[in-house]
Each structure stands twice: as structure tokens, then as C-alpha cells.
Design goal:
heterodimer; A: Immunoglobulin-like; five-stranded mixed sheet; 9 strands; B: Immunoglobulin-like; eleven-stranded mixed sheet; 20 strands; globular
Amino acid sequence: MKKSLILAAGVIATPATAGTITVTIPRIAVSEYHVPYVAAWIEPVGGGAARTLALWYDIDKVGNEPGTKWLADLRTWWRKGGRSLKLPADGVSGATRAPGAYRIPIPANIKPGAYTLHVEAAREDGGRELVSVPLTIPAANGRASGKTELGAITISAR
Amino acid sequence: MIRKSFLFAAAAVGLAAPASAHNAWLLPSTTVLSDTGQSVTVDMGASTAPFEANHAALPAENVKVWAPDGTMGKIENAARGRYRSTFDVKIDKSGTWRIGMENNTIAGMFKVDGETWMVGRRRGPAPSQGAEPARPVAAPPSAQQASPGGRPQIDPSRMVASVDDIPAGATDLALTETTGRNEFFVSAGEPNEVLFKPANKGLEFVPVTMPTDLVANEPGQFRFLVDGKPAAGLEVEVIPGGRRYREADQTQKLKTDGQGLLTVNWPGAGFYWLNASHSDDKPSHPKAAKRRMTYTATLEVLAP
């Protein structure tokens, strides 16, 4: 479990990556702030199965209302394939993140081609936002930005 | 108000259930669940605008629960309020559930020694209960269960409860078989299609788009079958909830294509009430001459 957290966070560079995605969680000035659930996944442009690259949720919460209960609030990710992911997933699942910029390595075993990167964030007592960015593998630089729940999303070749 | 509903219910028959009828509806708290540790809680009632609890409650005991593995589930915590009933369903298996009501009745007229008799209607309430003693032919408040209106009043002593009670010497049988289904869908975890296999009997709704995967910016597609064959040109009404917050009811009157396929473009996210009905002369019961079939679904459409 620990290992997966570290890998997903990109704190330690994995040996083989095809690039790096940086997701920024903005600081939001509200009296009751909860860190968002975030999913990042890619879908082939020509259609095909989605592949989840990172999922940050309340991974340790168990009991009557476990942290997984609210995963469907990431409603697009959930519909595009999140619901078939066995959790926790190594290298994918991680704890929620405080505001800041976080790197997600793009796994080296993704076939070259055209994809769309989607990043979705949903926050308790807050909003939900989906940001989509074109992504080619091997990765070229790319950039997009959310307006409310997400900040800058950047793609870099390394 | 009750009287009015009877009139509407009766009128509904000839006019393919106009939006002015008091329509039966089911309103679940959600249709998409992450896991199998949760319940949905459901309101049900009958009113002019779907999901607005302002007219009549419906009995929750009539609700059936089809679990995704093909077994029957059950409702819990049923309660009846003045305008709506409520119940819970524990969604303890992953996959797609169907939850709703089915009805199958035969109603109509026949003659015994030249006297007109009636079958399949609720008898008038006992005089002591007294709400509607003057209307022994009152239809149930649900438009679904209504049968042809404009009939003469029949003395309660010339009514029989079911088709099996028709006396042997009866003549001039004019009976209509009415079947209906009113349901919604819930998916926990990964959806599945176990319950979408048509029985090839009556009017059936076969999802093409998973009914728990509807999104406002993508059309939903559903196939309608009658006795297993595509119901081409079937009229289907789709009404978004929240009608009292709008100027217009925004009812979409749609038709299935030649293959029985309905395509619905959603004006926005929210709950929708979909209703279709079809009449023909192919009842399954040998004593009935006509058949009227209705299908109603509550569909939740999410924002993209």
C-alpha cells in the first residue's frame, strides 16, 4: 500500500516512464474545505478502454461509509471505467492531496498513439470539474487549466 | 380532486395517457452507487406532474425488486404518507437492478340474461367509509390501471372481481387485458445486462444505452418490443422532473423508428419520466378481446 502511494505521487521517479503529468489542486478559500477526490485517466482518441493513471481518494476510511462510497461522484471517470477498477490499485490509488502540484508518471507500457487525458476532481461540499487535454504517446508538452476545482494540468515529455 | 383524477384516468385511455393524467411515478434517491453497502430510498406517488408529491400515495407493497443476478430482492422501511409513499432497497449485489411495479388486469363488460355486468373493477367503497358512494365504477387513481371510460354506471351487485368469476352463461364479453410496468434502474459497481433479456411478451423496454449511464450531452437509446418484435412508430412521452419551476412542461413526444428504436436527446441533467402505451387485439387471455400495454420508467440523466 505504501509503495503504491509513493508511486502514484511520483515522489520517486519510476524507472520507465513515457512522460509526466502535473496536476494542480488549487487552494480554495472556503470555511469548510475538504480535499477533493481526483481521477486522471487516458482514453484512446479513436475509442477504446480508458486507463486510469491516478486516483486519489479517502483510501483509509472504512466502516459504514467507506472512502470508496463517494467514488461515483467522479461521475465521468466512474462511467468511463472507474467502476471496473479493483481498488486499491497498485500504482494508481493514493490518498487525497492537499492543494499543490503533483506529478503523475505516464507508464512506459502505454502504446504510442493519440489519447485524451482527463482529470476529474470532486470535492465534498464543493464542486466538480473535468479537464481534458490531448495527449500523444510518446508525450509532447501540453497544457490545460481548470477553472474551479482544478488548476493547471501540464504534460511534459519526461 | 379524486373525482377529477377518475375522469382523467378514464380520459387517458382513448388519448394515450395525456400529460394531464395523474401519473404514477417512482423517484429514487440515486441510480448509481459505488459499492454494495448502500441503499436507495424511493418516493412513489401519483400526480399530474411527475415526481411532485401533491395528489396521492401508492402502495409500496406492490413494488417488486429484481436483483442483478436474477433473484428477487425486497423493499424495506415502507411508509405511506398522504401524498407519497416511501421505501428503501438495500443494494447489496453489484450490477444493474430493476425496481418497480407490474400490473396485469382484465376489465370490461359482459351480459347475463340481457343485463350488463362488469368485471375487474374495484367495488365501490362500503357506505360506512363513504368517500365516493355515488361512484361504484370508480377507476383506480393510476392512469395505468384505467379501462375504457364513458361506460354506464353498473350496480355493484352486478360486478365480479376477476375474469374467473364470470358466470357460465355470460354472453357479449367485451374485455380488455391491461398490462403495465413502471420501474427504475440502479447500478452498483459495474452495470450488467442480465435483466434486460426480453421475455418476448407484451410491451417491453430493452435498453441500448445503459439506463444508469445517461448523460445530458449524449442521446439515450432504447428499444421497444411488442411480443418480441420491434414496436415501430410507438409514441413515447419523455417529461423532465421539476416541472413547477418551468413555464412549459417540456414534454417530448417521440416515436420509435422502424426497428423500434427510440432516441432521446435530454434537455439537461435530472430525473425523467418516460411513458409509452400501445393497444392491440392480441391479449394473452382467451376471454379478452383487446390488450392495452403501458411502460413507464424513471431515468436519471447526469451532467456530463
